[in-house]
Amino acid sequence: MAFKRVSQTTLPPRRWALKGYYGEGKSTFILAMQQPTLMIDADGRRHELKGDDLYELSEEAADHRSVERIQDLLDANMPGSDIRTIAIDSVTSLIGVSIARAMLDNAADRNRNKNQAWVDKAEKMRLLQDAVTAHGSHVLWIWHLEDAQLNGKAQIRETLPETERERLYRSLNASLRIVREDGRRGVLVEWSREGPSGMIVWDDEGYWKGVPERIEAAIYGQDGGTRPTSSGAVSADATPSRPAGSSWEGGAEEASDGVLTFYSPAEALAWGVDQGAFPSAEAAQSAYDQLKADCKPRNAREMYAAWIDFVQQPQRRRA
Q1: Which of 78, 88, 175, 218 could lock 190 by a disulfide, CB 3.0 to 4.6 Å apart?
Q2: Region annotation Disordered: residue ranges (predicted)?
Q3: Beta strand pairing status for 85-89 and 37-40?
Q4: Contact, 242 vs 190, CB < 8 A?
Q5: Is-contact 201 184, C-beta < 8 A?
Q6: Domain-wise residue ranges, the chain
Q7: Based on C-alpha coordinates, what's the Rg of the chain?
Q8: Is the pLDDT of residue 35 over 90?
Q9: 216-225 burial by CB neighbour count: b if 16+ within 10 A, else e?
């Protein structure tokens, strides 16, 4: 038989998401991944990293922000290369361009079909995922955390919208977050496809040396020297976006690309008003809240799907 039996001991590629505040070492973490590393540098900071085994996708900055060019360059140059890790730093800058453009074009009535702008955004995310995972390498997706306010309350915002995070989970086997405690930093395993989560791997040696290997040890049941997260260990940080056991956890892998969805609840409300289903944003908000209470969706994708069905019911069209 010409086929090779699948190894029972080889660990899967590191398909990881890593998020944290600006300046906490997300980009430096790239140097601790298996080398050589190819950087897709949408943030324009690749020259700040110093590593002998770092490669850039292209010398043209625009290529790092075009999903189509990323796919073309990877397909042309990855086969036969020795690249072990592809790092996307950051996915926010890549997908955020599509989101911002769609919102501006819709607001200015430049799109005849306003739904199509969001379908295009979903397609870009799908294309990007398929392009970077097609070559069997490790993949590190990076995005940022920021301080924000919601209804007068302080919270921590992820710069990659929830809808896009849901889509990304089909290509991940772990979601990681940088945390700090008593002057040291570590990586919290928020979620893993294998199941184990809630562990912190501390950067005791500096420069994240050995941390990726210890994360694998924690996830796959090897002796990695990790410890469980205590209730107060990350109290200053946001609630993990995909905590184990959360009622919003399920369904991410089945998220369908190429369908209408939204950047945020605010965009969903604006779309409802634009469709002629509500006389005002206040009326849309009231209907949205009631629908959420009635449907009890498990995640953002389910909520937006229910909202689309609700808005598009014929009796909701105003003359």
Answers
A1: 175
A2: 221-252
A3: parallel
A4: yes
A5: no
A6: 15-250, 264-316
A7: 21
A8: yes
A9: bbbbeeeebe
CB 298 within 8 A of CB 249: yes
Query: Tokens for 287?
Result: 């209907």
CA distances from 228 to 84, 145, 176, 187, 218 (A): 30, 23, 14, 12, 10
147 vs 265: CA distance, rounded Å: 19
DSSP string, 268-312: HHHHHHHTTS-SSHHHHHHHHHHHHHHH--SSHHHHHHHHHHHHT
Judged on CB neighbours under 10 Å (0-12, 13-18, 19+), 125 is buried
* Structure tokens belonging to residue 188: 């919290």
The sign of the dihedral angle between the CA atoms of 188, 262, 45, 71 is: positive
Helix extents (H) in 108-210: 114-133, 162-168
| Neighbouring-strand partners of residue 141 | 17, 88
User: How far is C-alpha 313 from the geometric centre of its chain's CA atoms?
Assistant: 32
The residues that bridge with 228 in the sheet, in sequence order, are 199
Q: Could you read off the pLDDT of 277-303 as tens digits, one per residue?
A: 888 878 888 999 999 999 988 887 788
d(CA 287, CA 269): 9
| Residue 34 C-beta-side C-alpha neighbours within 13 Å | 14
| Residue 190, CA distances (Å) to 200, 203, 275, 318 in order | 9, 17, 38, 45
How far apart, in whole angstroms, are the C-alpha atoms of residue 288 and residue 136?
Answer: 42
Instruction: Flag whether pLDDT at 75 surpasses 60.
Output: yes
